[in-house]
Amino acid sequence: MRARLAIKHAAIDVILREVVLRYKPPAMLAISPKGTVPVLQLADGQVIDESWDIVHWATSTGDGSFLRGDSSRILEANHLVSRNDNEFKQHLDHYKYADRFPEFSAEYYRTQAEAFLNLLNQRLAEHSFLLDEQPSIADIGIFPFIRQFAHVDIEWFRQTPYQHLHRWFDHYLSSELFNSIMNKYPAWEEGQDTLLF
């Protein structure tokens, strides 16, 4: 989702091939044998198969450069997203799929994840977005994971004391940007007409 958010933000046209991971098309595996999404193949044949790398490519290529800022802002965004990807996401996965991790309860995994929610809430108490008063790559890099977390138990999430996080979450949830990437597309098949995203 964050790759799509960045591409839309940057107003870059890409050919979309929607993939159902249960049926990975040979054309996808030919360019990215790891078989995960998203995968972006550039015009020169270069393949980018990590979502955060696609965010960086899109915001340094198209109209999304204002999301980046200077090198210190990019460094801060990278640090925050690294915490999201390497700490929070593990707790999120355990919470979301608690039946696969029976060592602890879902509530235990949720509590572990709350340290990151608290950090984000503290940042958002100081300014409108995660880094400062302007949207950044950190915001679009982290929002999809907070959305996943919230929707495991939205009633619980709504009653938490993270009011600044709620404000930020609702801003993105109701945004034209988010809604523009939420269309459903049929699974791509060889020979299908070109679909621009």
**Count of separate DSSP helical elements:** 9
Q: How does the major sheet shape up? A: 2 strands, antiparallel
CATH architecture title of the largest domain: Up-down Bundle
CATH fold group of the largest domain: Glutathione S-transferase Yfyf (Class Pi), Chain A, domain 2
What oligomeric state do the depicted chains represent? single chain
Q: Please write the CATH class name of the largest domain.
A: Mainly Alpha
**Class from secondary-structure proportions:** mainly alpha
Mean pLDDT: 95
Count of extended strands = 2
Helix content: 40-55%
Distance between the termini: 13 Å
User: SSE string, helix = H, strand = E?
Assistant: HHEEHHHHHHH
The 3D shape can be described as globular
- Number of structural domains: 2
Largest sheet strand order: 1-2
